[in-house]
C-alpha cells in the first residue's frame, strides 16, 4: 500500500460555473477529469447546511434528485433496517496476506479458525477521512471480505446513510456502481459512466455549483467479467473516449481519469490483489460473526420459536468445522435454514433428536430438500407431487448445474440472459420456488437482468451435482468438453480429472467443488437426495476406489499445502475417516514419531484446523521429527497455542520457527519449546523474530542450553517487542551476564509481566 502524502496546500480556487444545462454537464465531467481549477469552467462549491435533510443547500434541487433516486433504489431492501456494529466498524489492514491471495474463501476461514488478526478499527463515518492531522484523505480505498460476509450490504447501507446526510458528509456526490452493472457494457467512456448512474444528468444539468468531493463506488470487483491488467493497459485521459470497461476502471484507479475523485472498491480478497498495492491508500476488511452474533442471527431467523433456535445453535456448535463457517453471515443463514427444516422434518416422537449433518454436503443436501418443500418426501412416502418435483430438480441440475459448473471453471459468478440461453437454461424454470432458493435476480442500471447464486458455495454444490450426474454418460472431458472417447470414460476417470484439476488450481477455486463431489458418494447424502437429485445408489460402488484415489494425491512435498489439507476434507465428506482417526489417536498417545508419511502429515495439518483439542492447544511434543515439523510450517502459522516440548529440536529448527514467527500472517500467541536442545544460535533466531512479531504473548524456553549470548539477544529484542507478556528461561546457562542483560531490558519493556 502506498503511504499517504502530507497535506501541503489549501483548497483549489473556485469560480462560478456556466448556467446552460450543456455547460453544467461539461463542468461535471471536467471536474471529474481533474480540470476544475482551470478558470471559469469550475463550478461553484456546494453549500452544505445542517438544515437540509440531505446535508445540502435546499436550493440545490438537482443534487437532491440524485439523493432521492438513491433512496428510491434502496426502498424495500431488508438489509437497510440498520447496519450492524460489524458493518459500522471495519478492520484497518496493511495489505493482503498470502493466504488471502492464494486460497479459497472457505480455506481462509478454516485456516484462521474463524478469527481475525488483531487490527485497528475505523468507523464507517470516518472511512474516507485522514487518519491524522498531517495526512490527506485516501483516494483509492479497498474493502475486502470473503463471499457472503456483507460487502454489498455495507455499500448499500453507506449509500443509504449518505443520502440521508448521516455519513460521508464531505462528499457532494456519491456514484454507486456494481460490476454487475458494468459487465453489461463492452465499451464505456468516463462520461457515460456518470450518466449510467444518474440518467437524468444530461436532461437537467446536474451541476449548478461545484462538487469538490465526489466518491465513486465500484462494488464487487470479483464479479468483473475481465480481470484488471494494470501492466498492459494503455493510458487514457479523454473522458469522452469509449474504451473497454476493464481499461476504463484501470485508468480511473491509476488517476489518468477522474484524478480528483475518491474511489472505493469492494472485493473478495484474492481478486483484490489485481490492484497493485502501490496504488492503494487504505485497505479495510469486514470481519465475520462473533459467537454472540451467530447466536443472535439464529434467534432472528426463528423469532417465535426460541427452542428451535437453541436447538439449531447446539447442532451447529456440535461440529467445529461447520461452526467455523458460520462466522460467515450468508453461510450461517443457510445452515440455520437447513437445520430448521431438518428439525421440522422429524419422523415422529421416536425421532425427537434427528441426526445432525456432520459434513458440508449433508448440510447442503438438507438445504436442497428444504428447497423442494415436499413433506411427503421427509416422511418417506411417495406422492405425485414429489415425483413432479424430482423431475423438475433433475432438469434444473441438468441445465442450471451446467451453467454453474462452467461458470466455476471460468471464474464467472454473475450470469445474464445471454449466458442462460447459451447453456440452454429455460428462463421459465427460473421462476420456480426451487430456483429461488439458489438464484438471486437483480435488475441492472442498463435495464437488463443479472443472476447469481445466493452464495458461492451453492454454485459449487449445484456444479458438483451436475458433474456427478453427467459423468455417467459423458464421452468427453467435462472440463473442456473435448477429447471424445468411446466407450464412455466412466465416473472414476471423471473424478480423477476433477481431483487433478483441483490440485493444480493455484487459487483453490475448485477445492469446495471437489469436497461436494466427494460428499455426493457418501451413503447418507445419497439416501437424502435419492430420487430427487441423484439416482438411488448411483456410483456407490466407487467409494473405496475414490478414497484410494484421493489419498494417492498426497505426494511427499516439502510442505503440506492447502490443496493437500483439502484432500482430507474430501475424505471427511466421503465419510472415509480412518486416516484422520489414526493420526488423532497417535497425537493423544504421544506416538507421532512413528507417523512420517505424506498422508499422515496432511492428516496432522487437517487436525490442527478442525480438532477441538488442537484449537485449545496444539500439542506436538515427544519426538516430532524436524522433517514433519518443516512440512507443517504453513499450518502452524495459525495455531493459537503451540506445544513443542521434548522434541530434541536443535538450532536449525529454531531458524525455521523464527521464519514462522516473523511472518505477517502469524497468529501464534503461546509457544512452548521446553526441554529441547536450543543453544545461543537458536535463541538468536527466535530473538530476531521477536523484533517483528506482533502476536506472541508467551514464550517458554526452559530446560535448554541457552547461554549469555542467547540471553543478550533475547534481551535486545525485549527492548523493542511490545506484545510478549511471559518469558521462561529457567534451567538454562545464561549466567550473571545474561541475567544482567535481561534485567536492563526490563527497564525499557512495559509489557512483560512474568519472567522466570
TrEMBL record:
Q: Residue spans with biased composition (Polar residues)? A: 35-47
Chain positions covered by the region annotation Disordered: 1-59
| Entry keyword set | ATP-binding, Cytoplasm, Leucine-rich repeat, Nucleotide-binding, Repeat
Instruction: Look up the signal peptide feature and give its range.
Output: none
Chief location of this protein within or outside the cell? cytoplasm
Gene Ontology, cellular component aspect: cytoplasm
Where does this polypeptide localize? Cytoplasm
Show the GO MF annotations.
ATP binding
**UniProt KW Metal-binding keyword:** no
- What InterPro entries does the annotation carry? Leu-rich_rpt (IPR001611), LRR_dom_sf (IPR032675), NACHT_NTPase (IPR007111), NLR (IPR051261), NLRP_HD2 (IPR041267), NOD1/2_WH (IPR041075), P-loop_NTPase (IPR027417)
The NACHT domain, residue ranges:
139-270
In Pfam terms, one family for this protein is: NLRC4_HD2
Name assigned to this protein: NLR family CARD domain-containing protein 3
Amino acid at each position: 500500500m502506498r503511504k499517504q502524502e502530507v497535506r501541503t496546500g489549501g483548497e483549489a480556487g473556485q469560480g462560478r460555473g456556466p448556467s446552460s444545462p450543456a455547460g453544467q454537464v461539461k463542468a461535471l465531467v471536467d471536474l471529474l477529469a481533474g480540470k476544475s481549477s482551470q478558470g471559469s469552467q469550475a463550478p461553484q462549491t456546494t453549500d452544505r447546511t445542517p438544515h437540509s435533510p440531505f446535508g445540502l443547500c435546499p436550493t440545490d434541487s438537482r443534487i437532491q434528485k440524485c439523493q432521492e433516486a438513491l433512496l428510491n433504489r434502496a426502498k424495500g431492501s431488508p438489509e437497510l433496517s440498520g447496519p450492524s456494529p460489524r458493518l459500522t466498524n471495519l478492520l484497518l489492514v496493511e495489505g493482503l496476506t498470502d493466504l488471502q491471495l492464494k486460497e479459497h474463501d472457505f480455506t481462509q476461514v478454516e485456516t484462521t479458525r474463524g478469527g481475525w488478526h488483531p487490527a485497528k478499527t475505523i468507523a464507517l463515518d470516518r472511512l474516507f477521512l485522514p487518519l491524522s492531522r498531517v495526512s490527506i484523505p485516501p483516494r483509492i480505498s479497498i474493502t475486502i471480505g470473503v463471499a457472503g460476509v456483507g460487502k454489498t450490504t455495507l455499500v448499500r447501507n453507506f449509500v443509504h446513510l449518505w443520502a440521508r446526510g448521516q455519513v460521508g458528509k464531505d462528499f457532494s456526490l456519491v456514484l454507486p456502481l456494481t460490476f454487475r452493472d458494468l459487465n453489461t457494457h463492452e465499451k464505456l467512456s468516463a462520461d457515460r459512466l456518470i450518466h449510467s448512474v444518474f440518467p437524468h444528468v444530461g436532461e437537467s444539468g446536474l451541476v449548478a455549483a461545484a462538487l469538490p468531493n465526489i466518491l465513486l463506488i465500484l462494488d464487487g470487483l470479483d464479479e468483473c467479467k475481465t480481470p484488471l491488467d494494470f501492466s498492459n493497459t494503455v493510458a487514457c485521459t479523454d473522458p469522452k473516449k469509449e474504451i473497454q470497461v476493464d481499461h476504463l476502471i484501470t485508468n480511473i484507479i491509476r488517476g489518468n481519469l477522474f484524478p480528483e475523485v475518491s474511489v472505493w472498491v469492494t472485493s473478495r480478497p484474492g481478486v483484490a490483489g489485481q490492484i497493485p498495492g502501490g496504488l492503494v491508500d487504505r485497505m479495510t476488511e469486514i470481519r465475520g460473526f462473533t459467537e454472540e452474533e451467530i447466536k443472535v442471527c439464529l434467534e432472528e431467523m426463528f423469532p417465535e420459536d426460541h427452542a428451535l433456535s437453541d436447538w439449531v445453535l447446539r447442532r451447529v456448535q456440535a461440529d467445529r468445522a461447520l461452526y467455523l463457517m458460520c462466522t460467515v453471515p450468508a453461510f450461517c443463514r443457510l445452515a440455520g435454514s437447513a437445520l430448521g427444516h431438518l428439525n421440522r422434518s422429524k419422523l415422529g416422537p421416536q425421532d425427537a433428536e434427528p441426526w445432525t449433518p456432520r459434513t458440508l454436503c449433508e448440510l447442503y443436501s438438507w438445504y436442497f430438500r428444504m428447497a423442494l418443500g415436499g413433506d411427503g418426501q421427509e416422511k418417506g412416502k411417495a406422492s405425485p407431487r414429489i415425483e413432479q418435483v424430482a423431475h423438475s430438480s433433475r432438469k434444473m441440475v441438468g441445465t442450471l448445474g451446467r451453467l454453474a459448473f462452467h461458470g466455476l471453471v471460468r471464474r464467472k459468478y454473475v450470469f445474464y440472459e445471454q449466458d442462460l440461453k447459451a447453456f440452454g437454461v429455460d428462463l421459465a424454470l427460473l421462476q420456480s420456488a426451487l430456483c429461488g432458493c439458489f438464484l438471486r435476480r437483480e435488475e441492472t442500471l442498463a435495464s437488463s437482468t443479472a443472476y447469481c447464486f445466493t452464495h458461492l458455495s451453492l454454485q459449487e454444490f449445484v456444479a458438483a451435482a451436475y458433474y456427478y450426474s453427467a459423468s455417467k454418460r459423458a464421452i468427453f472431458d467435462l472440463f473442456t468438453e473435448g477429447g471424445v472417447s468411446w466407450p464412455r470414460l466412466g465416473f472414476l476417470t471423471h473424478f480423477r480429472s476433477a481431483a487433478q484439476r483441483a490440485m493444480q488450481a493455484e487459487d483453490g477455486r475448485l477445492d469446495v467443488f471437489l469436497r461436494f463431489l466427494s460428499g455426493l458418494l457418501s451413503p447418507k447424502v445419497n439416501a437424502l437426495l435419492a430420487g430427487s437429485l441423484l439416482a438411488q445408489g448411483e456410483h456407490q460402488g466407487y467409494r473405496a476406489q475414490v478414497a484410494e484415489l484421493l489419498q494417492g494425491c498426497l505426494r511427499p512435498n516439502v510442505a503440506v499445502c492447502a490443496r493437500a489439507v483439502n484432500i482430507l476434507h474430501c475424505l471427511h465428506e466421503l465419510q472415509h475417516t480412518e486416516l484422520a482417526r489414526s493420526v488423532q489417536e497417535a497425537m493423544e498417545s504421544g506416538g507421532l514419531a512413528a507417523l512420517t508419511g505424506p498422508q499422515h502429515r496432511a492428516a496432522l495439518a487437517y487436525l490442527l484446523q478442525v480438532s477441538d483439542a488442537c484449537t485449545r492447544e496444539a500439542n506436538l511434543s515427544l519426538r516430532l521429527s524436524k522433517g514433519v515439523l518443516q512440512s507443517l510450517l504453513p499450518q502452524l502459522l495459525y495455531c493459537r497455542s503451540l506445544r513443542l516440548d521434548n522434541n530434541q529440536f536443535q538450532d536449525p529448527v529454531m531458524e525455521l520457527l523464527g521464519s514462522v514467527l516473523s511472518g505477517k500472517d502469524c497468529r501464534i500467541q503461546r509457544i512452548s519449546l521446553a526441554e529441547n536442545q536450543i543453544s545461543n544460535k537458536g535463541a538468536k533466531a527466535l530473538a530476531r523474530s521477536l523484533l517483528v512479531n506482533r502476536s506472541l504473548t508467551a514464550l517458554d524456553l526452559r530446560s535448554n542450553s541457552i547461554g549469555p549470548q542467547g540471553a543478550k539477544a533475547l534481551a535486545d529484542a525485549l527492548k523493542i517487542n511490545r506484545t510478549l507478556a511471559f518469558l521462561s528461561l529457567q534451567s538454562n546457562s545464561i549466567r550473571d551476564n545474561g541475567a544482567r542483560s535481561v534485567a536492563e531490558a526490563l527497564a525499557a519493556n512495559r509489557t512483560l509481566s512474568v519472567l522466570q
